[in-house]
Structure formats: C-alpha cells, structure tokens
Design a protein that fits this description.
- The chain is an alpha+beta fold and 224 residues long.
- It has a domain at 26-167.
- The protein contains two helices and eleven strands; from the N terminus they run αβββββββββββα.
C-alpha cells in the first residue's frame, strides 16, 4: 500500500456502512379442502372447513378450525373412537408467488353433543415439516389442539402450528405463540463500563488525527 493510500483506507474503514439483514417475507396460509370427520353411517360429525388465505409477516402461527355438528343431548352424546382425519396448510410467498403444501394427520376420540364436547386428539403423522419458498424456509410445528365447545362455527375448536421463517441457510426467527417459560432464569449480563467501549465520536477523532498526521508527513517529504 502506498503512503497516500493509507489515510484513505482509514477513512473508508471508519465511515463504511454496516450491512443489515433485510425484513422477513410476507406470506399467506390457507386450508383449501373441506374435511369431514365422522363414520359414514352417522348423522352427526365433525369437520375442518376450508378457509380463505390469511396474511402473515415473518414468523407467526397458522391454524385450522375444528367444528362439531350434533343435535344430541348431553345424556346421550355422539361419539368417535380413534376417528382419523387429515388437513393441510398451503403457504404462498406474497412477493414471488411460490407456493407449497404441508399435510398433517391425527385421530379424534371422545364424545360431543349439541351443547359441548369432550374430545382428545392424537397426531399420527409428522408434526414438523419445512417448505422452501422464494428463498426462505418455512418450518411448521404443530403445537396446540383446542376442542370445540358447542355445535356450529361459533363454538369451533382449533388446531394450530407455529411457523418459523428464515432465509435459506440462515438462522430461524423464533415464531410467536404460547411458549412455556424456562425453569430457571439466566443472570442478566453486567453492564459494560463506558470506558471499555469507545464512543463513535472518539473513533472519528482518532481517525481524523491519523489522516492529518499522514498528510503532514507526505508534505514534509515532498518539500525535502
């Protein structure tokens, strides 16, 4: 490196902008099918209705509704025993239009009637799946089953998945949603003493001083 290039290199190093990561993408999810969960001979049943696309930015949650349809009384409820079902999430990257579908399955057991339900759920297939869309990985993790409370849409239950979004090959942003608190708390880091970390103004003054010193040496040598 030449003598004249040294001061310029210092200035470039000091004033160069710091690269920052861009925002995570906006995407939509939907359940496109209308799934019936019942014995073919039964007059009542449960269903997972289809849905319109729901828009999310970055990491978040995706869910499908679980609805029960019964006119039975509480004394003689309708029942299901290990009744299988399937549902899917279709994700679409808003910018690129890239789309993919993650399919899940489970079984429902228990009873339901016009005014309530007592159901348990067991997922039978993969509970974590990853879709790669538009340069991002979308990792879906099933985490919650909420049974319906009464018959009809208004009292519907829900099956939900956390969706973590990250650039392909990058770290995953933690999705939102209920997360159990840790058993222990990490101690808070000790504050850094102001004297240990130089302020940006101090760095700039030091850099300017180096540039000025280098310029004076060059002028003296050229005169000599």
């Amino acid at each position: 490196m030449t003598r004249t290039a040294l001061p310029m290199a210092i200035l470039v190093a000091v004033f160069a902008p710091v690269a920052t990561a861009g925002p995570l993408p906006t995407w939509t999810y939907q359940h496109a099918a209308n799934v019936a969960i019942r014995d073919v001979s039964a007059g009542s049943g449960l269903s997972i209705p289809n849905s319109v696309p729901t828009e999310v930015s970055g990491s978040g949650t995706a869910s499908v509704e679980l609805v029960q349809w019964s006119i039975a009384g509480a004394g003689s409820p309708d029942t299901v025993s290990a009744q299988p079902y399937t549902f899917s999430f279709t994700l679409t990257d808003v910018v690129t239009g890239a789309s993919g579908t993650a399919k899940f399955s489970g079984e429902l057991s228990g009873s339901y009637w016009k005014g309530g339900a007592d159901l348990t759920n067991e997922f039978t297939g993969e509970t974590v799946q990853t879709l790669t869309l538009g340069g991002y990985d979308y990792t879906l993790s099933l985490f919650e089953f909420t049974p319906p409370t009464v018959a009809g849409i208004e009292g519907g239950g829900r099956i939900s998945a956390r969706v973590g979004v990250s650039a392909v090959g990058g770290g995953v942003e933690e999705p939102t949603g209920p997360i159990d608190p840790p058993d222990t708390e990490e101690p808070a880091p000790e504050p850094t003493s102001p004297s240990e970390t130089p302020e940006p103004t101090t760095i700039l003054i030091a850099a300017a001083g180096l540039v000025a010193a280098g310029t004076r040496r060059l002028v003296r040598r050229s005169r000599g």
